Amino acid sequence: MPAYNAAKTVEETYREIPKDIVDEVILVDDQSKDETVEKARALGIDKVIVHPRNRGYGGNQKTCYEAALQTGADIVVMLHPDYQYTPKLIEAMVYPIANGLFPVMLGSRILGKGALKGGMPLYKYIANRLLTAFQNLLMGQKLAEYHTGYRAFSKEILQQLPLEENSDDFVFDNEMLAQIAYAGYIIGEVTCPTKYFGEASSINFARSVKYGLGVLRVSLLYRLNKMGLLKSRIFDFENGKKLPASNLNVKFSV
Questions:
Q1: Which of 7, 45, 209, 222 has its CA 20 to 30 A from that of 140?
Q2: What is residue 247's predicted lDDT score, i.e. its pLDDT?
Q3: Is residue 198 predicted with pLDDT exceeding 70?
Q4: Can you say whether residue 224 is alpha, beta or left, with left for phi > 0 and alpha for psi between -120 and 50 degrees?
């Protein structure tokens, strides 16, 4: 769980995690200004890691995935502790991976009617649809959305991708999906209801514009690299810096 100022929602999120299938819960705090760390420790979360300085959303995820691999996870679920996505879908997310159907699963807010019903602002919904259509066109995919923060990965994905080459900002998510598509993996999706409320994390309009421009850039880089016209570090699987490998056992980490 990549956390930043999640003190008001981390308990509700943690309580819904299905402990019968999740072996270990890891929370990485990115220098929160509230009591996120104290709350997480009081809840008995298995591992709480605190960044010495704020690394950004992408930097937080890098720490999350490295820590999950070090615990011996075969499947890693990235779940925001802001309770925007329900942990009750974890089983549906990991089952296709555990049974070899897909190496990556996304919890999509756009499949069905969950996004607007859950309170997603209309401008964000429209931007999501436009960016997704552009990405599908350039990357040859048919995903319902690229912008969900609810994701599950097999260990092979996390070990192979040069994630350390990715941004430490919000566009990390899109770079990661572009890398997965570039490597030829198939991405599965499940319908996920979502909640937008005061305590749920959300970037402002200015950051949203910056993120949108970053998404366009990643998609163009993907196409240019596929055409052999460019060689970007994020798509350099041989020489890019990867997360450290570990001796892995059958475990699920959130």
A1: 209
A2: 40
A3: no
A4: alpha
Geometric angle at alpha carbon 190, from 223 and 216, rounded to 5°: 25
Q: What is the DSSP string of 170-232?
A: TTHHHHHHHHHHHTT--EEEEE--B---TTS----HHHHHHHHHHHHHHHHHHHHHHTTS---
Residue 66 lies in a domain: no
The CA-based angle 70-74-79, given to 5 degrees, is 80
Confidence of residue 204 (pLDDT cuts 50, 70, 90): confident
What is the pTM for the complete model shown? 0.90
**Looking at the 3D structure of the chain, how many domains does it have?**
1
Residue corresponding to tokens 């769980």:
1
* Tens digits of residue pLDDT in 108-119: 998 877 677 778
- As a whole number, mean pLDDT of residues 27-47 equals 97
Check which CATH number belongs to the domain holding 219 and give it.
3.90.550.10
The answer to whether residue 77 is domain-embedded is yes
Which stretches does DSSP call E strand in 38-193?
A: 47-50, 75-78, 104-108, 151-154, 187-191
Q: Where are the beta strands (DSSP E) in 36-82?
A: 47-50, 75-78
Domain encompassing residue 186: 73-241
Which of 132, 95, 140 is CA-nearest to residue 115? 132
Sign of the C-alpha dihedral, residues 45, 51, 57, 60?
negative
Has residue 16 been placed in a domain?
A: no
